[in-house]
Amino acid sequence: MPGKKSGPEESAAAARTKNKAGPAGPGENPGERRTRKAAKSPAKSRAKSPNSAPKPDSETKALALKVLGSFSELYPDPKCGLERTDPFGLLVATILSAQCTDARVNRVAPVLLEAFPGPGEMSEAPLKAIEDIVRSCGFFRMKAKNIKAASGALMERYAGKVPRELDELVTLPGVGRKTANCVMGNAYGLPGITVDTHLGRVSRRLGLTANTDPVKVELELKNLLPEEAWTRFSHQAIAHGRAFCHSRKPSCDACPLGFCPYPRSAAGKPAASPKKTTVARVRKTTAAKPSVRERPVGKPVKPRGPGKGSPKTGARDGGPGKRKSVREG
Ligand code: SF4
Fold first, then answer.
1. What is the pLDDT of residue 57?
2. Is the CATH number of domain 1-270 1.10.340.30?
3. Which of 11, 74, 205, 269 to mutate to test the pocket of ligand 1 (most atoms within 8 A of CB)?
4. What residues does CATH 1.10.340.30 cover in the chain?
5. Active-site residue, selected from the candidate residues 143, 145, 196, 222
6. Global confidence as pTM
């Protein structure tokens, strides 16, 4: 579940919707947009946990089902990119996957979990030992700290077991809704929508949402799709994002989803080349301010009042200088 940034591809509606969440803080998993207040207090997190989105209109609902039908034909057996399926292993792998490829996580996670197989061992492991193993995954200090702290919280609060509830999962250090949904859907077989950068982008381009906030996207999609399809849809949308709907240059010509509005929208049209824009701007600037040489011949030049004139040209009181030569044509 890599969390790469999306390019300037979103729809006009998406551009209007601002993501109000700030950047990941020191205790947060990069790529997860979880509020800092929620991370501090489990009770507050439960109280403020967003659980609803505006009711979708019937047109969008029909579109969502159409997308789901097409995805089921295109990707009949979608799978999570992370290979771990046990709850603790998947939790660790998902924390590692922020801003990192699934392939790398699939190489690093088994080494870490062999050294420290359960929450007990992981919580007592020297932080430096965890850091050394996960170094190649990026943000290794924060990820190591979160994995150790989350393991400690599992031992303290859940007797070493990974909880099954989203509201409980998001109270663990480094665990946001994306990680929680991933664990629920792929380790416990519970319905969950994992909003990563691919799923968000694909959903916006297809017109299923205009939001860029992952939490809002998750809640909107949950309103649009049947519960039993949530986990499957997540994998399918991610697969489609990787296969066709690339961030910078989507392969719309080859994409089988002919009903997608994105290629016909303003956002889907290629931008004017910077070269042309520059030329146009230069022409406009030149036209607005004609040079002295372009001034119509014969047009009288306002004589200067008495003064010292230009020290460079030596012109005084309309005396010999550049301006006179222009008037003379
Ligand atoms: S038509 Fe283009 S924008 Fe729409 S889903 Fe396919 S690749 Fe993505």
1. 86
2. yes
3. 205
4. 1-270
5. 196
6. 0.69
